[in-house]
Amino acid sequence: xxxxxxxxxxxxxxxxxxxxxxxxxxxxxxxxxxxxxxxxxxxxxxxxxxxxxxxxxxxxxxxxxxxxxxxxxxxxxxxxxxxxxxxxxxxxxxxxxxxxxxxxxxxxxxxxxxxxxxxxxxxxxxxxxxxxxxxxxxxxxxxxxxxxxxxxxxxxxxxxxxxxxxxxxxxxxxxxxxxxxxxxxxxxxxxxxxxxxxxxxxxxxxxxxxxxxxxxxxxxxxxxxxxxxxxxxxxxxxxxxxxxxxxxxxxxxxxxxxxxxxxxxxxxxxxxxxxxxxxxxxxxxxxxxxxxxxxxxxxxxxxxxxxxxxxxxxxxxxxxxxxxxxxxxxxxxxxx
Length: 336
Hints:
Mean pLDDT: 79
Strand content: under 5%
Structural class: mainly alpha
Number of helices: 15
Radius of gyration: 21 Å
Distance between the termini: 72 Å
Helix content: over 70%
């Protein structure tokens, strides 16, 4: 009996080592292919959807190799990547192209919260906190909004996990299907950028989908999405007031302000000389590559355990709310 248990432990340890080696190998290969552009025919195939897909396949087949490392790196690398993207954007052009989407942001945020409350609480009878977290993540910026509102709401770890899992699953799907739908509907760069920024949850998937669609779509989607993300602050304050959560710390997404500073610096300093333009383009190019690697880390977080924890009702709420905001945004773009 003891020998059987020892063999089982050794087998498990071997599989864990194997998974970790595979995980590290994938990260290294992705990094090499992305950062070494001079390798003909190799760097072009490593797109944001491909990186996310590789992460998903690894997590679903092997589990999470380094969950804590994966979570921490994906969080900070995404923030650094978004700031780096600011060095490739012109402030006036970005604000002008994203103006229409910014105006719709107010309507969509409030509308999504109300519709989410109705679907989750009245229709599906999802528990209050989980339903509120899913609505918050859909309304603003996915996991970042949930992470900010959760402590204010005093949500349990299980409720946070279910909400994050629901949003994450839909994010992964959106990165794959949104560019396909956009091309099928023959959407312009501006139309797709606006649609992606409002209808896709997390900043990572918004930027990834925008990058897959085109340069202008990327700039518009990023600008609108980060403007939308600023709503984390008033939402957390309103949540604190409504649910009487006094004294809870509000997590402010400071990287958004650094993104704006990067755009300002690029517009008024770097663009004034050829050397400056080259520097800005170099930083922007590096940021795109690190974003792609970030999507691998994010994909590697979606294990079978996460899928099991979500449950059917929260997932249905997330899907119904997501479809509602996606279709209504499309209607707004085409009819107004």
